[in-house]
Write a structure and sequence with these properties.
Blueprint lengths: L7 H4 L2 H14 L2 H17 L6 H15 L1 H10 L8 H16 L10 H18 L4 H8 L8 H16 L4 H14 L9 H18 L4 H11 L19 H5 L3 H7 L12 H9 L4 H20 L10 H12 L4 H13 L6 H12 L7 H17 L4 H7 L3 H8 L9
């Protein structure tokens, strides 16, 4: 039975909790009192049953408007929501309120949690509100995006969402505006290359075209143009999609192929995976095929866990399932592209995520070099994220013995597996 509000079992404790918070405010200060109040909302949410993502979004939107977006984010961080609830979308919802409070300057209050939902919401809001005039401020804000290396480029994913909504889901216009974003950046920027930022922008725009989050009514009309029944590969095979970003576009056709194979969106049966992945095999150019197979890998992380918050700590069963699903591509090319996309989705900038990724690489088959490819990609990312820090040695020590030497000395030309 779905409840429309918090349990009375919690509400009856509201008065004593408020009294305790008042006492702590007088004795310990505001920080301790706020933490106690947050525990009330966490307890309140623990009694809720049957809510879907939309209902949790409504709850956190009210909380953010009443007590501030930063407070709402802290409650979301602490709460244990059901696995099937999309915490990333809830993070967006709170982010809209944060933008109303502080504008793009709210980036200073964001954290990298929930796949950078906060940063995405701010840049999306800024572009929808101001259009191209917001770009200099957005680029400056992305420089402050939380999450260490990689966060700067990831921030531009949000711009892609905002651009597509701003141009009323005209995908061709969005492709041109993503090029303009690329051209704003310095070629010698060490945080991300212009092409990397370009890909992230296209990624966000294509994801928005797939989901229609910001304006469902306009999106319904756009789908008829960009997802015609006569061409399953639209819009990615259109001439206005530049070859350099076309693989990213193909990575967002996954659900279209799954549905064509008879799958139910959001809950597909693995029996449909081989037929759906076969659509990737029919794509002519290798890079485009790779992007298409990568789209399956990105979705397999979610399908294996139903909760992106667990990407750092996947179970052995989940790792095995994802490996089996990637092999359904039927080719070593498809399996490897699928596998690398899963690897990239495991939060490699975090030691816990990197160690989970090592466990994933360890279950890959040696045939076709997939296992070596997995570990070499992981080692490359380990040096990117942990190089120059004390965490690099810890990362390398967490690898199987046969890969520790190349991790410690990746430039050693004499080393072979």
């Amino acid at each position: 039975m779905r409840r429309s509000g918090p349990s009375p079992l919690v509400t009856q404790y509201l008065v004593p909790i408020l009294i305790l918070a008042g006492v702590l405010l007088a004795i310990e200060g505001s920080t301790t009192a706020v933490k106690v109040l947050q525990q009330f909302e966490v307890a309140e949410l623990s009694f809720v049953r049957g809510w879907d993502t939309t209902q949790y979004q409504d709850y956190f939107e009210r909380l953010a408007k009443q007590k501030g977006a930063v407070y709402a984010y802290e409650v979301l961080e602490t709460s244990r929501l059901p696995e099937e609830v999309d915490a990333h979308e809830i993070g967006h919802t709170i982010g809209w309120v944060l933008y109303d409070e502080k504008g793009i300057a709210g980036m200073a209050y964001c954290t990298p949690s929930f796949r950078n939902a906060c940063a995405h919401a701010l840049v999306i809001s800024a572009y929808i509100e101001q259009g191209e005039a917001a770009l200099p401020d957005i680029v400056e804000a992305c420089e402050q995006a939380p999450g260490g290396k990689g966060a700067y480029a990831t921030c531009f994913h949000g711009i892609g969402h905002g651009i597509l909504a701003y141009v009323d889901y005209n995908y061709e216009q969005a492709m041109e505006k993503c090029r303009e974003v690329r051209d704003l950046l310095k070629l010698d920027d060490s945080r991300a290359t212009p092409n990397e930022v370009w890909n992230r922008c296209v990624e966000g725009a294509t994801m928005e075209l797939d989901l229609g989050t910001h304006d469902p009514q306009v999106w319904e009309q756009a789908k008829k143009v960009y997802f015609p029944e006569t061409d399953l590969y639209m819009p990615c095979d259109a001439s206005y999609v530049d070859p350099q970003v076309r693989p990213m576009c193909y990575s967002y056709l996954t659900w279209r192929f799954l549905e064509e194979a008879g799958a139910v969106r959001g809950a597909p049966s693995p029996e449909t995976y081989p037929e759906a992945m076969a659509y990737c095999g029919a794509i002519e150019k290798p890079n485009d095929r790779g992007g298409c197979y990568a789209g399956f890998g990105k979705n397999f992380i979610y399908l294996a866990t139903l909760d992106e918050r667990k990407a750092r700590t996947l179970s052995d069963a989940a790792l095995t399932n994802m490996t089996t699903w990637c092999r359904m591509a039927g080719t070593s090319e498809g399996e490897e592209a699928c596998m690398l996309a899963i690897l990239n989705g495991m939060d490699l900038a975090n030691l816990e995520g990197a160690h989970t990724a090592a466990r994933f690489c360890d279950v890959q088959q040696e045939e076709g070099g997939v296992r070596d490819s997995c570990f070499m990609h992981l080692i490359y990312n380990g040096h990117y994220y942990f190089g120059g820090t004390g965490d690099l040695a810890t990362f390398c020590e967490g690898l199987p013995e046969s890969y520790r030497k190349v991790c410690a000395s990746p430039a050693d030309p004499s080393y072979v597996f």
